[in-house]
């Protein structure tokens, strides 16, 4: 009889070594785990510049939320996070983990409350977490007392520069999850949809050089002579440049194309109000240059040595007489040229 009673005591004691909890309806009426899907950007063009390690290349638009149920009658335990198997190890003591694309890391944060109670930019804080409000998922390890809990499923994700970036296809499979009960009770899942095509062009043309309007000075018909067809006076041309930032080791070639009336001379547009007998010629260099810029010809601009090296292609536009001086009529001069870069 004593043996039977002793067995009953043992059986009654077994549940205390486990972890218990039940799902109830949360604030949004959902009862059960929260499952979030975040779409990766379809493409990511990384500028060839000197942006430091830690530069944010992409992030979600704030905290991304989905409904999660309430956990009732929970015994004391811990909240832990588990990164997807496709996400690499943490880089140092930061919140950033390696991805499959060299030079790009990923940081995933989870928030346990409404967005107004969470940091608007957790990565910028330099912290892995703040109390029991939010945390980097891979370092998540909170203790909690027995009771009722209404966790939120809110994630914020960053893609971050971690070094020299190689072109490739960034993808993150599997699930990144948050558990209560030290890993026994899954409450939040995050999966990523799509892939990101990462391109790292050898050079990035400055925004001010992508569409250039060169306003030539106003000149008179009497400025042209029967000698040189080119107006070479200091006040009759206009210098401009095509500027860019390039990666190290880039062999940068370029070509300029356009409608020509004579070799290496851009033809003037025709129609009402347009001048006749005058076009435009480009020169390599500044206003003092007499080196004609060949058209439809690939030329070497520079071979870069350092990362983020600045490359400038200086050019000058001048009026060009295409016939006899007597054939020139007053009007507007308008030409168009296309600039193409080649990298080796």
TrEMBL record:
Q: Which UniProt keywords apply?
A: Fimbrium, Signal
Which segments constitute the Fimbrial-type adhesion domain? 196-343
Record flagged with keyword tRNA-binding: no
Report any Pfam family annotated for this entry: Fimbrial
* Recorded GO CC terms: pilus
| Annotated GO biological process | cell adhesion involved in single-species biofilm formation
Gene3D superfamilies recorded? 2.60.40.3310, Fimbrial-type adhesion domain
Location within or outside the cell: Fimbrium
In the record, which residues are listed under signal peptide? Answer: 1-20
The record's comment on protein family reads: Belongs to the fimbrial protein family.
Question: What is this protein's record name?
Answer: Fimbrial-type adhesion domain-containing protein
- Species per Swiss-Prot/TrEMBL record: Zestomonas carbonaria
């Amino acid at each position: 009889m004593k043996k039977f009673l002793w067995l009953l005591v043992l059986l009654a004691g077994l549940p205390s070594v486990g972890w218990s909890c039940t799902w109830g309806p949360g604030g949004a009426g959902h009862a059960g785990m929260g499952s979030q899907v975040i779409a990766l950007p379809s493409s990511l063009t990384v500028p060839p510049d000197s942006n430091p390690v830690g530069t944010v290349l992409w992030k979600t638009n704030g905290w991304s939320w989905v409904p999660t149920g309430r956990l009732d009658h929970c015994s004391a335990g811990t909240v832990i996070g588990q990164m997807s198997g496709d996400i690499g190890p943490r880089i140092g003591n930061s919140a950033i983990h390696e991805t499959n694309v060299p030079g790009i890391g990923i940081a995933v944060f989870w928030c346990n409350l409404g967005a107004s109670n969470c940091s608007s930019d957790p990565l910028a804080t330099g912290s892995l977490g703040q109390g029991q409000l939010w945390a980097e998922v891979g370092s998540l390890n909170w203790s909690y007392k027995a009771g009722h809990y209404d966790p939120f499923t809110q994630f914020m994700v960053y893609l971050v520069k971690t070094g020299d970036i190689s072109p490739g296809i960034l993808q993150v499979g599997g699930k990144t999850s948050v558990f209560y009960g030290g890993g026994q009770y899954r409450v939040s899942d995050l999966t990523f949809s799509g892939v990101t095509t990462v391109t790292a062009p050898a050079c990035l043309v400055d925004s001010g050089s992508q569409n250039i309007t060169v306003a030539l000075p106003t000149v008179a018909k009497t400025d042209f002579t029967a000698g040189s067809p080119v107006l070479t006076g200091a006040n009759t041309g206009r210098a401009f440049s095509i500027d860019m930032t390039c990666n190290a080791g880039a062999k940068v070639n370029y070509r300029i194309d356009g409608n020509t009336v004579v070799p290496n001379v851009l033809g003037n547009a025709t129609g009402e109000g347009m001048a006749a007998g005058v076009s435009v010629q480009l020169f390599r260099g500044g206003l003092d240059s007499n080196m004609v810029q060949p058209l439809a010809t690939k030329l070497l601009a520079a071979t870069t040595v350092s990362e983020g090296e600045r490359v400038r292609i200086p050019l000058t536009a001048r009026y060009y007489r295409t016939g006899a001086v007597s054939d020139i009529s007053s009007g507007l001069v308008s030409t168009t040229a296309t600039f193409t870069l080649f990298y080796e």
